[in-house]
Amino acid sequence: MAVELIVFIFAAIASVAGGVGVIGSRLPVRNALSLLLVLGSLAVTYLLLAAQFVAVLQVIVYAGAIVVLFLFVIMLLHKQLGKMSPDRLRWQGPAGLVLAAAFLTLILLTIRLGAAAPTAPAPAEFGTAESVGRALFTAFVLPFEVASMILLVGIIAAVVIGRPAAQPAAAVGRSAATPVGASRR
Amino acid sequence: MTPPAIDLRSIIPELVIAATAMATMVGGLFLPAGRQHPLRWLAALGTVVALGTTLAAGSSSSPAFAGMYVRDTLTRVLQATALVAVLLAQWLSGDYVERMRLDIGEYHALVLVAALGAMLMAASSDLIMLFLGLETLSIPLYVLAAFARTDPRSQEAGLKYFLLGAFGTAFFLYGIALLFGATGSTGFQALAEQAHAPKTFFRAGVALLTIGLAFKAAVVPFHFWAPDVYEGAPLPTTAYMSVIAKVGAFAAFVRVYMVALAALAAQWSTALAAISVLTMIVGNVAALRQTSIKRLLAYSSIAHAGFILTGVVAGSPAGASAVAFYLLAYTFMTLGAFGVVLMLHRRGEEADRIADLTGLAWRAPALGGAMTLFMVSLAGLPPTAGFLAKFYVFTAALDAGQTGVAVFGVLTSVVSAYYYLRVAYTMFTGQPSEDVGFAGGRWVTAALVAASAGVLVLGIFPSRVTAFVQQVGQVLR
Asked: Which residues cross the membrane (chain B) (predicted)?
């Protein structure tokens, strides 16, 4: 128990520090690397919660694939780690900080007041790839399918937004002189 | 562990919509540009089939798919409303999308997937399904807001909507996490059982869930994104999203508060009543000073969210049917008003200033008459759908003892008559501008005729429709 607590404290501090780094630094590369720290320490937290499979997925998918993708995009977009443009928000920053602090206090109070009875330990097979897979294809089969629909929409969205601006070839058979009202056939 | 029974027959409408969306998108790839007209027919056909299967499907109050999905009377009524909204939106947007040379296949696919999200929200009986439905609704709307990629205003609208929507979703998810912590389950049945003796966690979860839903429904104080997004997004998208997002969000309000958390009604009704009064005041007062018809209708949609919320506040079966009736009436009148604006253009651009409407009623009497009808209905005057919709929600609120909310509702309705009727007045006075022309088509005309008919039928002969929406009340008993 004591070891778990120590590991948890380190992981928690690392994830909060990473979270601050994500929004605190002005260098995009540092933001992305801070995100890596957040995701890695969250994976440790998942392990402590006996969710091995989720922890492994966290490392492979988020840390391995998504952050690497972020880094590629940053390298391509900002040559030589170019800095972002200066912040033009004046009072919004402190105001956001105050509101965030108020929300944090509220949540901490809730957790303190609502300190629930100790929960039952997770069953032995909890969090393994088998049990996650079985849950996905039995009780959660409809949410699973809906999630795949959302992923499909995400792909369409990326194509729609990322495609180069309307090429003139698309206007074949259309007279450019009547941009409006020419739709009746 | 035995696998749960999977009855695909209960989700036929959703399957039809999903299949139509994919077929439309793939069809858009194979049809050459300029010859994509069949896609509209395909999308409309799929929607009509889905509407038919929704109305024909039986209803059962026991959840399917391991407690994830329920097809009861509430599902049927709200899904039918969502599908009517999609059908009208497709008719309205077809000409515009071709005129502005947007991608037709993707446009219709995204519109249909958003409808799928609203349908799933109406049918969810689990917080996970509600969340996934919300995302299936929201993500296509983010993209549709940014759909006119070359227009910086549209880009800004898409980005703003996406960032604020993601922010709202985070609250929603945190609420689900807390509720799961309090109940050990995400099902609505578990929520209903715990609602009798709520823990602190439970209340905090419900509060965060409310924030997430309030973002989507654009009620005060979570409405700031709405005017900017509505103004920047392409006109058909604005029309569609102002309706379908409301249908989805209020489906969730009815499912979560009126059905699952009925035992906690004394507590959430006070909070929702405050939100509702604030929304009606802010939406109606801010709409007074707008010069853009898109912004005016944005504030109008905020104000109407407040009116619809009074039905939820009532918490009674009558309140739930009033919400369903209001959503249907709102669909017809809002899409109709947007349809009139879609018929106009100012030098090839959207005619989105109220001043652009000056004197148009004399050039196109039918258009002027239709716009007047929609404005009268939005203001809530008889003999239109808007009047009866407001009548039902306020009566339900009064019967539930929420006198203050009903009084504020009536007072703010009077305020709203000023800015709605000002639009109608503008159409009948002054010299029409030379810049403004008509850009109609058969499809938009059909949509306007359908919307006008809907507004009048719901206002004058409502008995069949009220009998249909009153089924909703059965779910609450």
From this structure: 15-34, 41-61, 73-92, 104-122, 128-149, 161-181, 201-222, 243-265, 271-289, 296-317, 323-344, 364-381, 401-421, 442-461
